[in-house]
């Protein structure tokens, strides 16, 4: 009823406003119509138009004025770049004050001008028209005048010679020429002309001029251009004039024979090169020529010897004469006789050969002859001077003769020559000597014999196998090698004629066998060539591969010949038989090579000894060693020494040598003595050479303590090496030399050492330097700023080394096991840390004034840089909202005390992306950089999602955003809601369930929060606003809708029964309104259960009779909780049934009571407000407690009905007021009874009295009523604009509660 009263008052006020506005609009509309009518009438009067008033008259005989467009100058052809004036003329309107409008619109500049000038381009082409306006009266548009603008034409220069021209731009010296400038396409225009080159002394406006009697100086380039008004054409292309002097004439003969025979015809011609186009007349010498003087040629019909002599000519054109030509001589003689010859000149020709029969005319070599041939009395079709027989046959035999013809002149027949053709012979190849086995180095003659061709002059061609070889003679001699082996054949060639190839003969050439000397001892040998004195040995010469030949042998020992013919002989060895033995064999005059020398050495039983000086077991590269060979018992003999390995380049007679050794000299060394061919045994010793050693320096500490010393130890590895003396150095200068490797120092410095031994002294390499410092008492400390032991990749941190005490200036030294080393400065700023910066850091200082004075190392500080960007974890409490309850957000970050500040965001759905993006997060009020890791939201009524992140440092480093967390509201009266069909919480697997999003939005998305804590989009494709699913166990979860405009709907629980044989509880999805009836039932997959169902409330059995349903006729808050059913021993899952509490219904009686009580309350409230203001309080607040009973427990649905909440405003400074409710237990009287008391707490605030239009959320009024089992607590806060609003709101409150 209170709502109805408020609506009636609002409707009355709205009607009053609307009606008032409507009357104003009607009045304004009438005024506008009258004004428009007056304006229209005035216009009709001005133009003389009858508007319907019978008192006005119209002069229908007056014609409208029409302007004319004129162009100045009025040329039919306008060129780009010229200036044109366009003028609008109104005939008969001269006295009027006109403004003008032009078409096209681009030329309306200025708008009142009747003319304008254009320097035209081609884009200015087109039609132009105009009209005039006087006051508000317009003339008609003028007729269009078309302006055509084209690119200016290009001129062309023409040259016109006066006489016959060689070319339009080429004339002869002395001729006349006209130069003309023509402009194509510009014929009608009045052009002026300009010429270049500057040499033209002609008027600048002349179109043409004439050159009389051209000279060389008149040659060159000519160009011109035209001018009309101020516009110029481009310059014409250059045309070049060439003035020539004609060439000297030349006399030629046709035909061009200088030798003419009596009776022949010849033409003499005068030719002038380069003067072909001119009109020439000619003059000839000698004077005997009785021919017309202008003829360029004449013909001598039957020449005689008297026509011989020299001829010359010259030409004349107008007044110009050429020079006389050179003289050409004509000789006339008696005709010659031909002669026939053969080429080649053999009278005997073989079938297949080629022969040429040639006709030669002696004395007629320069003439162009044609020839006639005959064989016997038969003519041959050949006109050249020779007749070629390519492949002769016996039919080509006979006598050949010829005559010559030139023009109509013939010689006499030549004498005949006879050609004879016979069959060709066949060659044969022979070898001398005819041995089948030939050795390299022996001499062989290969001969080609042609039977029956002995008298011919043959050339020979040879081949070995299929490869031609060079000799051309009948025979050739070869000192053979193995490459000469092969099958040899030949053929004869005479001219281009070849005989057949002969049959092949095979020549086999092998390497001459090389003899080998073998020594064969009579008993066991040590080496094949080493024999002990007194043994018997057989020396044998064997020629491998030459066994069949009759060899004789030659022997030698050293250079002395022995036993010249025997292949073997035997020796009883003495020391004198030692030496080198070799042999060779001979056959005919051919010798084999000498065999390799086989040395026979006679060994005597003496063994030498090899020794090393010095006798150190360990020798180093660079040291000098003497190797000595000593022969015991052979002191009186003259020994020479032989050493192994062979690399020793030492004189063979030396018994010792010195080596400055390298590592390559390591190895075994042996020697033996030799006296002629008498040898001792070999001795042996091993030498080991190591690389040059490096001294090693060790210190028992690196800093000298106050009053103490540091012990330095120098050594050479291996420790078994001996003979060392040690040399010490400090700061690069010699310090001392000691025989042992240990010394004590008490001064700081840079120390090194090396070892030396031998004479001259051999030094090791210097040791590595060791810095010995002197310790000072100052103590360094490493600090981190900020002091975070663990930071994250990308953060900034400073590692600082601080040394306290005194004003000493320090150089800093850092030591760390991180991969990136700090610079030697007092602090190391890491701007973007990575895991490479992780490690232990310690430092020490070194005095700048004394580099050997240092502090001790500081204690290590550990810095840990994590590559994993931290992700905060957001928790929300509670997960399910009671209407108006507050929500607490907690953001957890690793190391929460490490300087973090927190940022809080609200999730705004974006249907374009699957997951929520940071770009769609909205920062919550006062949610930027809070020091606390929790955030409380008061008065939350709808489903919402939240995220958080943390930041710290300078510049600030931010974590990732947390995963979104949600708080769900089951309120179905929100702007967006989700309904489920069938309307129940529990479903069987494979059930078809429809989820429908409702609200004033067109785009939707359904979300699910599953049991495993994952967030899903349920339907990729929705049917309108409905999502259809076929349930499975994984579909258990919380569902809600998200709209395209970023709204969340109410949320619902859906539970899927995985047990196909178990029951489900049929209970409503949405909260049940208090006082309404509800029916719960139990159902199997195949049927609804009608009887014998047990029902449980919060695990307590509440019904176990035969009924199949649990009916609650009037639901109260105590009925809220978890329900489940049981049938035949099988239980359903639990489902939460929520009860929505509402106030009692209103009635007319209660309304009247409320009005009476309301008036009384207003009086009381006004008194209270007056007192409140006097006491300078803006409001008063009373806290009233009452007991509220809300059974239930926390479940996987995230609902805890026993939570206690405190709500405060989180929007200070705004006009929003949030209610505060605190349900607590009241046990002050020690009893569990509830107090049946209704309390009302009202807070009134008076803001600005000036009327403003606010957005709904800025002046919203929030009210919430919660009804417990036995009491009601109501808290109301108001934001009002006037005292009247206080009164109306108060009446509503009183009416709703029946007070």
Automatic annotation (TrEMBL):
It comes from Oreochromis aureus (Israeli tilapia). Residues 28-62 are annotated as: Disordered. GO terms for cellular component: external side of plasma membrane. Pfam families: Ig_2 (PF13895), Ig_3 (PF13927). This is Ig-like domain-containing protein. GO terms for molecular function: transmembrane signaling receptor activity. It comes from the Eukaryota. Residues 67-146, 155-240, 249-333, 338-418, 427-506, 515-603, 608-672, 693-777, 780-864, 870-950, 1063-1142 form the Ig-like domain. The gene is LOC116328675. Residues 1-22 form the signal peptide. Residues 50-62 have a biased composition (Polar residues). Gene3D superfamilies: Immunoglobulins (2.60.40.10).
């Amino acid at each position: 009823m209170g709502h109805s009263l408020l609506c009636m008052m609002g409707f009355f006020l709205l009607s009053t406003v609307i009606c008032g506005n409507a009357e104003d609009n009607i009045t304004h509309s009438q005024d506008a119509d009258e004004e428009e009518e007056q304006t229209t009438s005035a216009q009709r009067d001005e133009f003389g138009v009858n508007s319907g008033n019978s008192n006005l008259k119209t002069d229908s005989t007056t014609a409208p004025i029409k302007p004319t467009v004129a162009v100045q100058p009025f040329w039919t052809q306008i060129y780009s770049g010229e200036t044109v004036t366009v003028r609008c003329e109104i005939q008969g309107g001269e006295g009027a004050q006109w403004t003008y409008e032009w078409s096209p619109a681009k030329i309306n500049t200025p708008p009142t001008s009747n003319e304008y000038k254009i320097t035209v381009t081609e884009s200015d082409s087109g039609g132009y028209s105009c009209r005039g306006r006087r006051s508000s009266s317009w003339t008609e548009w003028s007729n269009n005048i078309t302006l055509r603008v084209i690119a200016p034409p290009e001129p062309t220069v023409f040259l016109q010679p006066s006489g016959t021209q060689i070319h339009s731009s080429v004339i002869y010296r002395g001729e006349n020429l006209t130069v003309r400038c023509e402009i194509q396409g510009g014929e009608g225009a009045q052009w002026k002309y300009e010429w270049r080159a500057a040499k033209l002394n002609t008027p600048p406006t002349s179109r043409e001029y004439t050159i009389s009697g051209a000279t060389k100086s008149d040659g060159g380039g000519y160009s011109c251009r035209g001018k009309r008004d101020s516009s110029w054409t481009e310059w014409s292309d250059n045309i070049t004039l060439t003035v020539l002097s004609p060439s000297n004439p030349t006399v030629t003969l046709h035909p061009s024979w200088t030798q003419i025979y009596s009776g022949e015809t010849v033409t003499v011609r005068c030719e002038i090169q380069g003067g072909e186009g001119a009109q020439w007349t000619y003059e000839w010498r000698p004077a005997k020529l009785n021919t017309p003087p202008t003829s360029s040629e004449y013909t001598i019909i039957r020449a005689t010897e008297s026509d011989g002599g020299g001829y010359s000519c010259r030409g004349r054109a107008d007044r110009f004469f050429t020079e006389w030509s050179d003289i050409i001589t004509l000789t006339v003689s008696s005709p010659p006789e031909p002669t026939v010859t053969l080429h080649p000149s053999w009278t005997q020709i073989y079938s297949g050969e080629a022969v040429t029969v040639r006709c030669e005319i002696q004395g007629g070599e320069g003439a162009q002859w044609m020839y006639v041939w005959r064989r016997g009395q038969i003519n041959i079709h050949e006109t050249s001077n020779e007749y070629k027989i390519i492949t002769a046959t016996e039919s080509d035999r006979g006598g050949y003769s010829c005559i010559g013809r030139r023009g109509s002149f013939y010689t006499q027949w030549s004498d005949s020559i006879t050609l004879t053709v016979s069959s060709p012979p066949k060659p044969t190849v022979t070898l001398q000597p005819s041995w089948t086995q030939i050795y390299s180095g022996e001499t062989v003659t290969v001969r080609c014999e042609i039977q029956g061709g002995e008298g011919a002059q043959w050339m020979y061609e040879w081949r070995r196998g299929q490869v031609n070889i060079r000799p051309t003679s009948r025979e050739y001699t070869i000192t053979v090698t193995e490459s000469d082996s092969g099958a040899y054949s030949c053929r004869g060639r005479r001219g281009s004629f070849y005989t057949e190839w002969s049959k092949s003969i095979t020549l086999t050439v092998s390497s001459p066998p090389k003899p080998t000397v073998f020594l064969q001892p009579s008993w066991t040998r040590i080496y094949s060539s080493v024999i002990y004195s007194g043994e018997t040995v057989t020396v044998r010469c064997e020629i491998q591969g030459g066994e069949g030949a009759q060899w004789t042998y030659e022997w030698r020992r050293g250079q002395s010949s022995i036993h010249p013919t025997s292949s073997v002989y035997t020796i009883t060895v003495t020391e004198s038989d030692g030496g080198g033995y070799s042999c060779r064999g001979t056959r005919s005059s051919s010798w084999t090579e000498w065999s390799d020398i086989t040395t026979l050495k006679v060994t005597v039983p003496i063994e030498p000894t090899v020794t090393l000086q010095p006798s150190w077991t360990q020798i180093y590269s660079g040291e000098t060693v003497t190797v000595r060979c000593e022969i015991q018992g052979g002191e009186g003999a003259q020994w020479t020494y032989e050493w192994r390995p062979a690399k020793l380049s030492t004189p063979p007679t030396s018994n010792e040598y010195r080596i400055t050794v390298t590592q390559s000299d390591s190895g075994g060394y042996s020697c033996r003595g030799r006296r002629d061919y008498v040898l001792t045994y070999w001795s042996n010793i091993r030498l080991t050479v190591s690389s040059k050693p490096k001294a090693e320096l060790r210190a028992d500490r690196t800093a000298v303590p106050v009053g103490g010393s540091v012990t330095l130890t120098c050594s050479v590895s291996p420790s078994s090496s001996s003979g060392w003396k040690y040399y010490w150095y400090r700061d690069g200068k010699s310090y001392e030399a000691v025989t042992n490797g240990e010394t004590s120092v008490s001064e700081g410095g840079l120390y090194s050492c090396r070892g030396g031994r031998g004479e001259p002294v051999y030094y090791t390499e210097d040791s590595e330097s060791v810095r010995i410092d002197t310790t000072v008492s100052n103590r360094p400390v490493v600090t981190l700023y900020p002091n975070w032991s663990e930071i994250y990749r990308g953060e900034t941190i400073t590692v600082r080394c601080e040394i306290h005490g005194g004003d000493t200036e320090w150089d800093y030294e850092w030591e760390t096991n991180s991969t990136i080393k700090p610079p030697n400065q007092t602090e190391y700023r890491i701007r973007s840390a990575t895991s490479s910066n992780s490690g232990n850091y310690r430092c020490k200082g070194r005095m700048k004034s004394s580099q050997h004075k240092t502090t001790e190392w500081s204690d290590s500080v550990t810095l840990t840089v994590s590559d994993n960007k931290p992700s905060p974890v957001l928790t929300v409490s509670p997960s399910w909202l009671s209407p108006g309850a507050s929500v607490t957000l907690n953001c957890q970050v690793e190391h929460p005390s490490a300087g973090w500040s927190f940022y809080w965001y609200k999730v705004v759905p974006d249907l374009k992306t699957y997951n929520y993006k940071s770009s769609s997060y909205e920062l919550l009020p006062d949610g930027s950089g809070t020091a606390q890791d929790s955030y409380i939201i008061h008065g939350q009524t709808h489903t919402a999602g939240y995220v958080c992140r943390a930041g710290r440092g300078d510049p600030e480093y931010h974590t990732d955003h947390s995963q979104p967390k949600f708080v769900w509201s089951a309120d179905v009266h929100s702007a967006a809601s989700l309904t489920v069909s069938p309307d129940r919480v529990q479903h069987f697997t494979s059930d078809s369930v429809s989820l429908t999003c409702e609200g004033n939005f067109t785009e939707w998305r359904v979300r699910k929060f599953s049991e495993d804590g994952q967030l899903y989009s349920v339907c990729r494709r929705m049917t309108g606003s409905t999502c259809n699913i076929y349930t499975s166990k994984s579909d258990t979860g919380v569902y809600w809708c998200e709209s395209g405009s970023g709204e969340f709907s109410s949320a619902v629980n859906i539970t899927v029964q995985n047990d196909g044989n178990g029951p489900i509880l049929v209970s409503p999805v949405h909260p049940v309104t208090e006082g309404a009836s509800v029916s719960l039932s139990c159902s199997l997959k195949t049927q609804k259960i009608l009887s014998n169902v047990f029902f449980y409330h919060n695990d307590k059995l509440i019904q176990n009779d035969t009924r199949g349903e649990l009916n609650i006729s009037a639901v109260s808050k105590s009925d809220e909780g978890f329900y489940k059913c049981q049938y035949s021993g099988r239980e359903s899952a639990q489902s939460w049934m929520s009860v929505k509490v509402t106030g009692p219904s209103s009635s007319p009686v209660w309304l009247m009571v409320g009005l009476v009580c309301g008036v009384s309350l207003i009086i009381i409230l006004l008194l209270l407000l007056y007192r409140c203001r006097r006491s300078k309080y803006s409001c008063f607040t009373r806290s009233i407690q009452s007991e509220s009973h809300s059974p239930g427990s926390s479940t996987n649905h995230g609902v805890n009905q026993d939570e206690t909440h405190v709500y405060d405003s989180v929007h200070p400074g705004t006009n929003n007021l949030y209610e505060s409710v605190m349900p607590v237990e009241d046990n002050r009287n020690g009893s569990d009874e509830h107090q049946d008391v209704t309390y009302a707490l009202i807070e009134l605030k008076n803001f600005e009295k000036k009327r403003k239009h606010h957005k709904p959320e800025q002046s919203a009024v929030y009210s919430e009523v919660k009804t417990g089992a036995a009491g009601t607590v109501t808290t109301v806060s108001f934001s009002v604009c006037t005292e009247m609003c206080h009164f109306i709101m108060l009446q509503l409150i009183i009416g709703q509660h029946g007070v």
